[in-house]
Amino acid sequence: MGIENFEPVVSAVLPDIVARVPKEPAGRLGRWEPKGYSRHGTRVQAALDEVGDVLSERLLGALELTVDRLAVDIPHDLVSGLAQSTVTRYVTVWMGDEQCAAKQAVAIVEQVHPGAADRVVELFEALRDKAAVPDAAGDEAEIAAQHGAAHFALAVIVSTAVLRSLGTAVAGATPAIVGVALGAAAIVLPTVPKPRGYAAAVLAKRRAEYLLPQSSSTSAAVTDHRFWITEGSVPANADFSGNGLVAAVEDGVVIRTGVADGHVPISMHVLTGPPEELDLTGWDEVVEISWTASEGGAVLSGNASGYGRRCWETPPWPGDYRVRVQATGRDDAEDSYHLVMWQAPAAPDVVHKKTDRLGHRLRGEPEPPLVIAPDAEHRWIEKSSLGEAATITVVRGLTPEEVVSTLGGDPAAPVSITSIVERPAWERLSYPGYVPLLAVLEVDDVVLAVEENGFQGSDRDRLTALSRNGKAASLYWNVNANFQLALAERGRLLYAGHPGHDPGAPHCEDLDFDDFRHRNAKGLTAIARFAGRGITADNLAAIYATDQAYVLRG
């Protein structure tokens, strides 16, 4: 006997079962890629759990009547070794959420007939060629559905033959047959080659769905001072001596980084044509080059989901492309990149800007002199806990108590910062939800006031009141790009605005606020110059060490 005697039986029944499998769930099975997140029960149970209840119930409903009537003889030697259970009655107890019928039935089969589900998987794998549809035609959805339906139907036939040979009601029950078949299909199908026309159908679908313009903000994986956008290759060598930043390779481009390994932030735009503007502000190196896509659909290194899905890709069609790469922070290994690309005939490289030392070295040029920026001592703020949103106020001429009361707090009612910030919202009793806190520190004849994610110090009337006996300066920023520098002296507001947009800011002559980089550090530098004293990283640490703040009541 053997499997060769079983093959004709399978082939005879297969077309009828294929016709009963619904197209949409069949397509899902035809594309199935396991994510491996389920560890529930046996491998068939885990696969069924990952497939999900909705797909299980839909397939069970579609095939229930057909499987009820299905009879498939199987040679005895193919099921030898499987225990013929003597159990005739059983009780199931389910804890937690109610499980679908297929899951319940499979769980019983695994207990009553151990090894039976695995035998279905083994025979399905051995017979999988019987379900091949090499000539499947149509679009991606149609080919995936034909592929999935044929193999699921084969799994159903094998599952029917194996389980009904065991003789008990549970093994012969349709939910058990369909459940085991679906788990087996989810295990085996990812290893089965797709039909010949599937790759072309996928490409056609991607091209039809790819719309311009495209934008993405993500991160690129850096290896050995490089990240790349390619159609699949991992470039071994790239020559950056021409422009110091980017090089074309056989199926994409490679960018030279300051960071040795890890990830760098990157924003990308794919346009229908050349960008209308060239903005050099805020970038150290800006270079344009051409490259040729052999197939299209190049992917950023490290930007895949891990399950074969493309998170971002260049246009999925071949041709000549142009890319503009803008880089900053390479000299300090704090890289950031902006890429713009569009389809265009090949043209020579263009270097629009070259100011970082790394680029000069790569091009074989003398490095520019090292210049220490005037805001360098305040750049610590960018990596502090205040990086996203805060107001920092420096006051000369008032006591800490006067600063607290002027900003809306009660100097006699300090609270613990951690008791408020770390307390779950439902426990915040007298301080439900967001609690605006003010922390102060007196040092060198000034009072430093810090509001994390607060803004009272930026209020122009309050700041003017804080300056009644001397000077007061505040800097406010948040994640929505709001930014304000405010300076007051002896009860008179001298300036309030964004120095990059609103002219006349004192002490900002050598601070380039048009350049978005290190904007908060530049603002703190202006405050320190105006007040004669700024805030340091040690000051902020001392404020947090006191664990004392004041609730602002508006």
Structure report:
The chain starts with a helix and ends with a strand. The longest helix is centred in the first third of the chain and has 25 residues, at 140-164. It has 16 helices and 17 strands. The protein is α+β, with helices and mostly antiparallel strands. It has helices at residues 3-18, 23-30, 43-51, 53-69, 101-112, 116-127, 140-164, 169-172, 174-188, 198-209, 357-363, 400-406, 417-421, 460-466, 519-531, 537-546, and strands at 214-222, 226-230, 246-249, 252-256, 262-270, 285-293, 299-300, 319-328, 336-343, 350-354, 390-396, 437-443, 446-452, 471-477, 483-489, 492-497, 550-551.
Features:
16 helices, 7-stranded antiparallel beta sheet, 6-stranded mixed beta sheet, alpha+beta, 554 residues
Layout of SSEs?
Blueprint: H1 3-18, H2 23-30, H3 43-51, H4 53-69, H5 101-112, H6 116-127, H7 140-164, H8 169-172, H9 174-188, H10 198-209, E1 214-222, E2 226-230, E3 246-249, E4 252-256, E5 262-270, E6 285-293, E7 299-300, E8 319-328, E9 336-343, E10 350-354, H11 357-363, E11 390-396, H12 400-406, H13 417-421, E12 437-443, E13 446-452, H14 460-466, E14 471-477, E15 483-489, E16 492-497, H15 519-531, H16 537-546, E17 550-551
Parallel strand pairs: 5-9
Antiparallel strand pairs: 1-5, 2-4, 2-7, 3-4, 6-8, 6-10, 8-9, 11-13, 11-14, 12-13, 12-17, 14-15, 15-16
Helix pairs in contact: 1-7, 2-7, 3-9, 4-9, 5-9, 6-7, 6-9, 7-9
